[in-house]
Amino acid sequence: MSQEHPTEYYRTTNSRVGKMLAIMLAICIVGGVIFFSMWDYWISEPPHVISVMAGDVDHSGPAEATGITITQDLQFLESADFRSLTFNAMIDEPGVNPTIEMSVGDKVVFNVVNDGMSFHAFGVTKDTEGFAGIIPGSEVAAPTNPLKPGESGTAEFIAGEEGTYYYICTVPGHRDQGMVGEIIVSGSSGPAVAADPTGVSHEFTLDFVESDDFRTLAFNALPGEEGNNPTIVVNSGDEVTITSVNAGMSFHAFGVVSNPDDFNSVIFDSAIAAATNPLKPGESGSTTFIAGAPGTYHYICTVPGHALQGMIGEFIVE
């Protein structure tokens, strides 16, 4: 006699189904919040310090600046129907998207202002299309944090090689609508020549300081405080002495560089310690050197990444 096994049924309740759906919905919401809160990270390029360490090509910051500075004022403009976007003048008007001609080692200072009704951002790229490949240091605002109408900003660009570059609005689509101009870079006219020693001496103190959360690094004072990253101006041939104290909790080193995005481009024998042998907290050091060829240089912390966090100031040789 065969014995039949009863069929088993597994049931649940409406409340259990509701709880399961609520849990799944909560997971989706939390995941969405995490994703969009890190939107700037997802769309960003790798930190420039990584590309420098990897030996990637850097189109900015030649080793020998010419000392020539070009100032270019640019206004973001829009047509009434918003189909045409340009710089300085509308299409077919004189002065629209002016072409900039310069030599390798020259510097362009861009003063940009948003005279439109939309949001805009600025940068220089060697790419012939799109809004990627922006050269570090040439940016004003960003697509994720653009200039609002009436806002303005300043950026600098020094070409390290010959070729055609483009200044653009980096907000996606705006370049395609007309916000693009050419920068024609020809061969270098020769580096600026250093003057003979003048016999004039200068002394400066540039101490390393850090914010409590270590996200912001600076010299002498944090951003917004008096004395933050002071600009140093000397004449070619002057003797310069710089003293630095590591007033932070991390390791730091100092140098005047020809390219602020390359912590290896220290010039004038201006180093204090080094990234491989930095100043420890509480330690200090000094350096004395002769200011070389006229040009705009920068002093930075040469520990990789620290200049990007704010340890950078201008060192101008006239």
TrEMBL record:
<dbReference type="InterPro" id="IPR033138">
    <property type="entry name" value="Cu_oxidase_CS"/>
</dbReference>
<dbReference type="InterPro" id="IPR028871">
    <property type="entry name" value="BlueCu_1_BS"/>
</dbReference>
<keyword id="KW-0812">Transmembrane</keyword>
<keyword id="KW-0472">Membrane</keyword>
<keyword id="KW-0186">Copper</keyword>
<dbReference type="InterPro" id="IPR008972">
    <property type="entry name" value="Cupredoxin"/>
</dbReference>
<keyword id="KW-1133">Transmembrane helix</keyword>
<feature type="domain" description="Blue (type 1) copper">
    <location>
        <begin position="230"/>
        <end position="318"/>
    </location>
</feature>
<dbReference type="GO" id="GO:0009055">
    <property type="term" value="F:electron transfer activity"/>
</dbReference>
<feature type="domain" description="Plastocyanin-like">
    <location>
        <begin position="92"/>
        <end position="187"/>
    </location>
</feature>
<keyword id="KW-0249">Electron transport</keyword>
<keyword id="KW-0813">Transport</keyword>
<feature type="transmembrane region" description="Helical">
    <location>
        <begin position="21"/>
        <end position="42"/>
    </location>
</feature>
<dbReference type="InterPro" id="IPR000923">
    <property type="entry name" value="BlueCu_1"/>
</dbReference>
<protein>
    <submittedName>
        <fullName>Plastocyanin</fullName>
    </submittedName>
</protein>
<keyword id="KW-0479">Metal-binding</keyword>
<dbReference type="Pfam" id="PF00127">
    <property type="entry name" value="Copper-bind"/>
</dbReference>
<dbReference type="InterPro" id="IPR011707">
    <property type="entry name" value="Cu-oxidase-like_N"/>
</dbReference>
<dbReference type="InterPro" id="IPR050845">
    <property type="entry name" value="Cu-binding_ET"/>
</dbReference>
<dbReference type="Pfam" id="PF07732">
    <property type="entry name" value="Cu-oxidase_3"/>
</dbReference>
<dbReference type="GO" id="GO:0005507">
    <property type="term" value="F:copper ion binding"/>
</dbReference>
